[in-house]
């Protein structure tokens, strides 16, 4: 279980994963050693899974974001396993979720533009067996985009 100090450390790290142990100790009023040990403990336990950076989509020329809902033809175990095994290989697919409702999967896809999405759809996604339908939703404006968990 995380205590209030662990949550504060995580909040700082989510905001800036390059923050130093010394900077954290100043913000939280604890010794650098205490901060270091808490961070390492959370890493060992798997609370902190990885450190990453966020890229500017426009500057890396991948600003066209699409959410694509996939419905499989059948829900046989082998088809589900095969679809998941194949879709995770696509660099364009940033996230893939098995969901409830009218569709089976929700994909977050990032490409350069509409022609590149069309090419991805025609040359990669629709080549996967057992896809019954795909419904695409294009992002007009990004209002909020974060992976940071806010602790209450």
Structure description:
The chain is an alpha+beta fold. The protein has helices at residues 4-15, 21-28, 32-45, 77-87, 114-123; strands at 64-72, 93-98, 105-111, 131-138. Strands 2-3-1-4 form a four-stranded antiparallel sheet. Helix 2 (21-28) packs across helix 3 (32-45). The chain is elongated.
How are the strands of the biggest sheet laid out side by side? 2-3-1-4
Give helix and strand order, one letter per element, not per position: HHHEHEEHE
Number of discrete domains: 2
- The unreliable regions are none
Please name the fourth-level CATH homologous superfamily of the largest domain.
Answer: Lrp/AsnC effector binding domain/regulation of amino acid metabolism (RAM) domain
Task: Summarize the topology.
Elements: H1 4-15, H2 21-28, H3 32-45, E1 64-72, H4 77-87, E2 93-98, E3 105-111, H5 114-123, E4 131-138
Antiparallel strand pairs: 1-3, 1-4, 2-3
